[in-house]
Write a structure and sequence with these properties.
Helix content: 55-70%
Shape: elongated
Strand order of the largest sheet: 3-2-1-4-5-7-12
Number of helices: 23
Length: about 575
């Protein structure tokens, strides 16, 4: 049941938080409720707010909704009548980032961000709202082509943006600022830089996923580039400062944009390291040459464009992410300090500590992770069967592994490096084994009081079950080979064709090499490759996924080309 806002207390001002279910929206709602002199209307596109009962801020919002000090309105910003119904009678509208943007759909993004901003402006003017504060981003002045050192509000929008959402957000910001002082509506925009904090859905989850993939250990460039970051509560505080400043300093504040930061720039990679180390992951340490990464990224993007793989649908281009990690981006907040009266309420250090604590469930050594990974075999262990062979090749028992390694080296020398033929080497080895077996049979069971174990007969026997399984395996492989050859003969299985072609090509490459060299490489790989794979499993798999994806796309491109050529050939006939 809703109550009339002004009937609660005539001294309270009514505000509307559009997109209140967003990361920033929730933080602003909590701060407004804590101040105690605001009646808050929460507006979002979802039917209801999804609140976490274990979160203090969400509990505060839930209690306010229950006591009617806050109300919730479902609003689609594409429908002006719904906006007008939610903001009617309010004093100020705080406009946050929309929560229902489908980044792969340009039309949807445009309607939500740009057309949504137009609808909000028109609704505010019709409903006689006094203030409209738009939450933009510092990205609207960054095109990635050069560093920004202490940039202020005199920076202009770039001619070309590197991602869709920033372009549209810049258009929305310009519309809001241009609407200032029309029909009594005062507007301003805030440009926070790299917002983070508890409840973050972008920066911290992205870094954790990157760390799990194994790629977070790399630094692009020198790692000395500086960046400004803004704790979420400081952004919420800046919104309230802007609302108060519009009341007292209309001329100097209205119609302008303001950069918002923690006033403490730091190295971008130090920020990343603090987050990852705080959650138990390895800090970035390996530096990659920026130009090398850029060339690789350019080739990948070129392939996506030429093969028409839909990369143009992505809202944030890989080049833009690359530039964020490489370029310096610091901003001058003196205008916000002087005109809005803004200063951070939470320090950089405390903000980092709170953020890390709130994401403890994503920590590498969290109880959830430890429980799920307890006694879990690595993929290398599973690949080797998880038995004695796995223990040897993965160096679980160093003495046994080293003994087997020496035995393999001796056998390799015996068969390939001593100058004899393979047949004579095998005959001499069998002769030596026969002498040893015969000698072991003549050894007494006790020598000077020490028992000597005889070799059991079972060591020289092959069980009937084992023989049957071996024969079944041979028959299965033979039938599978026959089926594949038949499929190739029909010419209707492109996957088998590519597999056969690649396998035969690799076989020809191997055949051109010395057989001794090939065996030496295989043996060396057995005792090193699996061990290295287990140690760097996530990094290798991340690279493998990229390579496999590229091969699949290339295979599809070749297949389409062959089918097109075949069609044209038949048509010509």
């Amino acid at each position: 049941m809703e109550m009339d806002d002004q009937s609660v207390d005539s001294s309270l001002k009514t505000c509307v938080v559009l997109s209140g279910g967003s990361f920033l929206g929730r933080s602003l709602i909590s701060r407004l409720l804590r101040l105690g002199h605001w009646i808050v209307r929460v507006a979002d596109s979802t039917p209801s707010l999804q609140l976490d009962p274990y979160s203090d801020s969400d509990s505060l919002i839930s209690n306010a909704l229950a006591s009617c000090r806050a109300t919730y309105h479902q609003v689609d910003v594409r429908v002006k009548s719904q906006i007008a119904e939610a903001i009617e009678g309010s004093y100020v509208v705080f406009y946050m980032d929309p929560t229902d943007v489908r980044t792969h759909d340009f039309y949807h993004c445009y309607m939500i961000i740009v057309q949504g901003a137009k609808n909000v402006i028109h609704a505010c003017r019709e409903c006689k709202v006094k203030q409209l504060i738009y939450n933009s981003s510092a990205d609207v002045v960054f095109d990635g082509s050069q560093d920004i050192n202490g940039g202020d509000e005199t920076l202009r929008y770039p001619w070309k943006f590197q991602d869709l959402l920033t372009d549209l957000k810049a258009q929305a910001e310009a519309l809001v600022l241009f609407a200032n002082d029309i029909d009594g509506l005062l507007t301003c925009a805030l440009r926070p830089s790299n917002v983070f904090g508890p409840g973050d859905t972008e920066i911290v989850p992205f870094l954790v996923n990157f760390a799990k993939s194994g790629w977070a250990k790399f630094i692009i460039g020198s790692g000395e580039n500086m960046s400004d970051f803004t704790y979420i509560e400081n952004v919420a505080h800046a919104n309230i400062c802007a609302a108060e400043a519009l009341d007292s300093k209309k001329v100097s504040v209205a119609g302008k944009a303001f950069f918002i930061t923690n006033l403490k720039p730091m190295k971008f990679w130090d920020f990343v390291s603090n987050i990852l180390e705080g959650l138990g992951y390895e800090r970035p340490s390996v530096k990659l040459h920026a130009k090398m990464v850029w060339y690789i990224l350019s080739v990948v993007m070129w392939m996506h464009e030429k093969l028409d793989l839909g990369m143009h649908n992505c809202s944030v281009s890989p080049h833009y992410i690359f530039q964020l990690a490489l370029r310096t981006r610091t901003f001058n907040c003196s205008a916000a300090q002087e005109l809005l009266g803004y200063s951070p309420v939470i320090s950089q250090e405390e903000g980092l500590a709170r953020t890390i604590e709130s994401f403890c469930h994503l920590a590498k050594d969290s109880s959830v992770v430890r429980y799920s990974d307890f006694d879990k075999l690595s993929k290398a262990d599973k690949l080797l069967g998880g038995g004695k062979v796995a223990d040897i090749l993965l160096w679980r028992d160093e003495k046994r592994t080293f003994t087997c390694f020496l035995l393999v080296v001796v056998l390799f020398y015996w068969f390939f490096l001593d100058g004899r033929t393979f047949t004579s080497s095998l005959a001499q080895l069998l002769l030596l084994v026969s002498i040893l077996i015969y000698g072991c049979g003549m050894v007494p069971l006790n020598i000077f009081g020490f028992p000597v174990k005889s070799i059991p007969l079972s060591c020289f026997e092959v069980s009937e079950v084992g023989m049957r399984d071996s024969i079944r395996s041979i028959v299965y492989l033979w039938n599978r080979l026959a089926q594949n050859i038949a499929a190739l003969g029909r010419g209707d299985d492109w996957n088998n064709f590519f597999k056969a072609a690649v396998s035969l090509y690799i076989l020809t490459l191997i055949a051109t090499q010395s057989f001794t060299v090939v065996i030496a490489v295989v043996l060396a790989f057995m005792f090193t490759g699996f061990f290295i794979y287990e140690q760097y499993e996530s990094e290798i798999e991340g690279l493998a996924r990229i390579l496999v994806y590229g091969i699949i796309q290339l295979k599809g491109f070749i297949r389409r080309g062959l089918q097109l050529a075949s069609t044209r050939f038949h048509n010509d006939e």
